[in-house]
Automatic annotation (TrEMBL):
GO molecular function, one term: mannosyl-glycoprotein endo-beta-N-acetylglucosaminidase activity
Upper taxonomic lineage: Eukaryota, Metazoa, Ecdysozoa, Arthropoda, Hexapoda
Name of the molecule in the record: Cytosolic endo-beta-N-acetylglucosaminidase TIM barrel domain-containing protein
Organism of provenance: Graphocephala atropunctata
GO cellular component, one term: cytosol
Domain Cytosolic endo-beta-N-acetylglucosaminidase TIM barrel: 83-355
Length: 363
């Protein structure tokens, strides 16, 4: 069995005490494998797919719209628990795995796992940053263990501050761009105000320690009364968390009527509401899979942002007689009418057409 140097492997942090005591040392992978700075993207997006634009025989520039005026697309990576072949900084001999190459169509990338602090692996960081896409990690707590973690953190204001500070230091050290904050456990009601305070504190610490644009997105889970009750919409039970950070990732069991309430609650921040769509289709509108475009059609009609969860479904459900690239391309092509595609920030630009599997492309 091949052995790997621990400084060549990207791993999460699984224990809250390791977070509270975290400090930079010379043994982690980032001292050997750098992360490229995030590149600038164009300040506009092209409405619709390039194929549609060409077919209309109109002036290309007529389809350019300022990015700030358009809804966003979040890609939430959830592939078999994470940290598989992608955890190796020097690459893996197994190139037959999930890969993503439609970077121009997304605005944020979230690396997700069910570990306490998910630090995005170097490969995903470099791929996203090369295309101008911020790459976020995840802070997740779940069930009884999660409740115990937050009891320990929120009962002591100094520990609350330290936990926030250490999370920001970790983000700055590994050069990722923020967190998805997912509290999937009950919180004693008396502690909820301090949890809301923690969200704002973490956002402030991220901006301070990273000294660049960062993102903190709240997942629609625990509510302001401390219960674990997914709302599937922005409403008074989760809006204080939304107000304290950069956006909310709504749970994916929404109905069209829920979207109207989200619009009313969001006001001018409508594009900061990321409506969840589960590609696996678990109780999801239109059942996910190759019907994700139907959910996206509803959202774009309302000028709303989307968070596409677990698009690695295209690989995990790949039939034995089907090619992954064909299936992946088919999935994203169905969404192309609802994409707002980033163009290059400057010309000329270059590409080797590699789709992140290190195999040469025939051009």
């Amino acid at each position: 069995m091949q052995e790997f140097d621990s400084s060549d492997i990207c791993l999460p942090i699984t224990d809250v005490n390791l977070v509270l005591s975290w400090k930079c040392d010379g043994k982690c992978w980032i001292h050997k494998h750098d992360v490229v700075p995030i590149k600038h993207r164009s300040t506009y997006k092209n409405v619709g797919s390039v194929l549609e634009i060409r077919s209309k025989n109109d002036v290309y520039s007529e389809y350019k719209v300022c990015s700030d005026l358009l809804p966003k697309t979040v890609f939430c990576h959830d592939f078999k628990g994470g940290y598989l072949e992608d955890r190796f900084c020097n690459g893996s001999p197994n190139i037959d795995t999930y890969r993503f190459f439609n970077w121009a169509a997304i605005d944020l990338f979230i690396y997700f796992s069910h570990k306490l602090v998910t630090i995005p692996p170097q490969g995903w960081l470099n791929a996203g940053h090369t295309h101008g896409v911020p790459v976020l990690g995840t802070l997740i707590t779940e069930w009884h263990e999660g409740e115990a973690i937050w009891r320990g953190i929120l009962t002591d204001i100094e520990k609350t501050n330290l936990f926030s500070q250490k999370l920001a230091e970790i983000c700055a050290h590994y050069k990722f761009d923020g967190y998805l904050l997912n509290v999937e456990n009950v919180i004693p009601k008396d502690f909820v105000p301090r949890l809301v305070q923690f969200v704002g504190l973490l956002k402030a610490h991220l901006d301070l320690y990273c000294a660049r644009r960062t993102w903190l997105i709240w997942y629609d889970s625990v509510t302001t009364d401390g219960t674990l009750d997914w709302q599937n919409k922005l409403c008074p039970l989760n809006k204080p968390f939304f107000d304290a950070c950069d956006g909310i990732f709504l749970n994916y069991v929404w109905k069209p009527a829920d979207l109207q309430e989200s619009l009313r609650e969001a006001g001018a921040r409508v594009h900061d509401v990321f409506v969840g769509v589960d590609v696996w289709g678990r109780n999801c509108y239109q059942d996910g899979g190759f019907n994700v475009d139907k959910a996206l059609a509803v959202l774009r009609t309302l000028n709303m942002s989307v968070a596409i969860f677990a698009p690695g479904w295209t690989f995990e459900t790949l039939p034995a007689d089907e090619d992954f690239l064909t299936r992946e391309t088919s999935f994203w092509r169905r969404l192309s009418s609802y994409h707002y595609v980033h163009g290059p920030a400057q010309l000329p630009f270059h590409s080797d057409f590699c789709q992140e599997d290190n195999r040469p492309a025939a051009v």
